[in-house]
Structure formats: structure tokens, C-alpha cells
Amino acid sequence: MEWRSEAVSFCLHGSLALITIQMALFYYRRATELQKLQMLKDETGELSSSDEKRYRILKKQCEKELLQVKLFLETVWYLF
After folding, report:
1. Where are the beta strands (DSSP E) in 11-60?
2. How far apart are CA 34 and CA 40, in angstroms?
3. pTM of the prediction?
4. Contact status, residue 31 vs residue 66, Cβ threshold 8 Å
């Protein structure tokens, strides 16, 4: 029976690692676009109205995703 619990644990750790990597990649893509808009804002002093709207949306999404990742990792840490 012990080998089964080790196998389940191994699979669970692998699945959690994959989910974490996917979440990080998704966040990275958004953060990259947000950084480009921030650089444009820093260089020109302002953004067009459409860029400003996209900037605000991306910023909120990144903040929300970071909080979700934090809660996810805290939950996983609690389980183990």
C-alpha cells in the first residue's frame, strides 16, 4: 500500500507543478504586454485612450491573477 500513496503523491505533485507553470506562463504573457504599455507611457508621458483602457484592464487582471496564484500556493502548502 505504501507504494500507492507514493505514486499518488508523485502524480499530485506533478499535476500541481504543471498547473503552477501554466498559471505562471499565462501571467507572464499579460505582464509582458503590461510592461510594454508602461514603457510607452513612461516614454511619451501618456497613452492613447484605447491603450490606457487596455493598460487598466491588464493591470487589474495581473493583480487578480497574482492574488489567485498566492491563494493557490497557500492552499497547496497547507495540504502538504
Report:
1. none
2. 10
3. 0.63
4. no
Q: Judge residue 3's burial from the number of C-beta atoms within 10 Å of its C-beta, 0-12 exposed, 13-18 middle, 19 or more buried.
A: exposed
Q: Cα–Cα distance between 24 and 79 in angstroms, integer? A: 21
Q: pLDDT (tens digit, 0 to 9) for every residue of the chain, 80 residues total?
A: 454 455 445 555 566 666 667 677 777 777 888 889 999 999 999 999 999 999 999 989 888 887 887 787 777 766 65
Q: Which three cell numbers stand for residue 74?
A: 497557500
Q: Which residue bears the cell 498559471?
A: 23
- Torsion over CA of 58, 44, 47 and 54, rounded to 10 degrees? -20
Cell of 8: 499518488
CA distance readout (Å), 34 to 4, 7, 57: 45, 40, 9
